[in-house]
Amino acid sequence: MLKKGSKLYSILTGSCPKCQEESMYKEKNPYKMGKVFDMHETCGHCGTRYKMEPSFFYGAMYVSYAVSIAFGVAAFIISNVFLGLGLIYSFFAILGTLLLTFPIILRLSRNIWINMFIHFDKNWKANQN
What we know:
Layout: H1 7-13, H2 60-82, H3 87-100, H4 102-115, H5 124-127
Helix pairs in contact: 1-4, 2-3, 2-4
């Protein structure tokens, strides 16, 4: 079970990596494509700035590549090994998986990227002064 305080909780929920009290995103639903990139500038609870520097989230592209590969490999294994589909159908399964999960992969990679630089602080209220 996911507990507050773990990086996995912050990554999977998209919550502030420092206090984990609120979502970093203005719109919770990643499938609203016009708002998939819309993030709050700072956390409303602890004041953490999400965009630490201009173009900070460009690094998330590298994470996105790795996450996409993981999703593609999972789709291949499920379609080819477990379902016994041929290579061409497995290829289409990979394409379909990546197209359908694109917004999730995008946000997941941003969440992983920011959690590499900002760590959970259970005493964030005391450290705010």
